[in-house]
Amino acid sequence: MKRRLIVSCFILFFLVSCQSQIIPTRASLAMIPGGGGLPATYTAAPGTAVPTLTPIGTLRALPPTNTPPFIPSHTPAPPTPTPTETPTPTVVGPTPPVIKPIHAYGIREAIPYQAFPKPPGDNGWGMHWIPTVSQERGVVDQFVAEMVRMHIKWVVFLNDGANIGDNDYLVDRLVANGIMPVMRLYRDGILPYDGNLGAVVRHYRARGVYYFQLYNEPNVDIENQQSFANPDQYARAWANAARVVVENGGLPGIGALSPGGSYNHLQFLDRTFYALEYNGDAYLLNHAWLSAHNYHGTRPYNDPGGFLLFREYDKIVQAHLGRSLPIIGTEGGSYHPDPNVDRQFIEYQYTYMRNREPYFFAFSYWLIANRAGGGHDTQWEWQTLIRPNYVHPVVTEFFYKNAR
Question: Mean pLDDT, 10 residues at a time, over the chain (404 residues)?
């Protein structure tokens, strides 16, 4: 019992001693820097620990220390921006056309001009043949050899309507020499073709003819049976023939217009397209090409109504179809009493073909020969390059010497 009393007294003494050290006294509060005093109404009992009652809001901030601010030892370089690659804008051009073999296009599927056939080693140099519907074999051999020597790659010739056979030898010789034949199906007036047009197309397609020109200069009054040019009447006649050509594997050509015809050729072409569209025949243009008579004469080289006439035609085609049709110059040229003046213009025309517009397939001078090839109409003689006992200097000095 005595031992327990002694332990209890020891514990009580220990707790009182610790409390007097933990709870600050008035004197200890006075030693705190910035500390306040107790309220005046507070009176502590002698020997009693003084609680901390100073309101927080009355405490003052500690004075700043004398630690110097941080001064960098060197001036930092500005940050180097990370280089960013400037994106190159992507130029989206027209979708390239789908090129297939010519026979793989359906009748209502537009053939892009890039898919139309061309001769091997094509240079765009054409020539209108002799103005007769057939020639003897010796004449054919002579002038086909001349075409080869002159580096001609396209030859336009006349076929008597729906006749089959008269031009077999000519076509065979042209194709054998890498020359593209362009057959103008000659018809006097804008009338339906006599005979079996489909059989003609099948026959000559098998021999290498793709291009069939239908009618000629329909904007000239004398070429029309009603004695005046009529684009609607021509559109109907052309569509009836073109349908047969397309159905039998050929490519129908819109007959060349005369720049000097009684009906303005640009208006005639535009209204022909409108008529085809109105009549429901515009789908035939999917397989069509355009024949041009871009005679130049001696006008300035950049005259849009001369050699460059094909550009005006292309604008009309683009306005109706939104694309270009192949254009083949089937007649053209320059004529002057001085052959040296002729030569300058002819050289310009054929030299231009080296960097021509891609839709302009060929330019063809009218004519290579007339009487020298068996022709009988003397009115064409002065417009030929080769005559009996005469050869135009452009033949020997330009065509013979230029492979392109």
Answer: 42 40 37 36 42 39 43 45 54 74 94 97 98 98 98 98 97 98 95 96 98 96 82 96 98 95 96 98 98 96 97 98 98 94 96 97 98 95 96 97 77
Q: Is there a contact between 245 and 201 (Cβ–Cβ < 8 Å)?
A: yes
The string of DSSP letters for 127-168 reads: EE--SSS---HHHHHHHHHHHHHTT--EEEEEEETT--STTH
Cβ neighbours of residue 361 under 8 Å, at least 6 residues apart?
116, 118, 124, 154, 289, 326, 327, 328
Which stretches does DSSP call E strand in 300-343?
A: 327-333
Long-range contacts of 41-50 (CB under 8 A, 24+ apart): 49/19, 49/20, 49/23, 49/24, 49/25, 50/23, 50/24, 50/25, 50/26
How far apart, in whole angstroms, are the C-alpha atoms of residue 252 and residue 289?
6
Structure tokens at 365: 């001078």
User: Which pTM was predicted?
Assistant: 0.77
Contacts of 373 (CB under 8 A, 6+ apart): 129, 130, 132, 135, 139, 142, 143
Task: Report the amino acid identity of residue 275.
Answer: A
Distances (CA, A) of 256 to 238, 261, 284, 322: 12, 11, 17, 21
Given the structure tokens 């329909």, which residue do they identify? 218
pLDDT given at position 88:
57
Architecture of domain 102-399: Alpha-Beta Barrel (3.20)
The answer to whether the CB of 198 falls within 8 A of the CB of 162 is no
Under the phi-then-psi rule, with left for phi > 0, alpha for psi from -120 to 50, and beta for the rest, what region is 34? left
Q: Which residue's entry shows tokens 């390059």?
A: 385
CA angle 168, 293, 320 (to 5 degrees): 105
pLDDT for residue 201: 98
Measured CA angle at 68 (ends 67, 72), to 5 deg: 135
Token readout for 385 is 């390059």
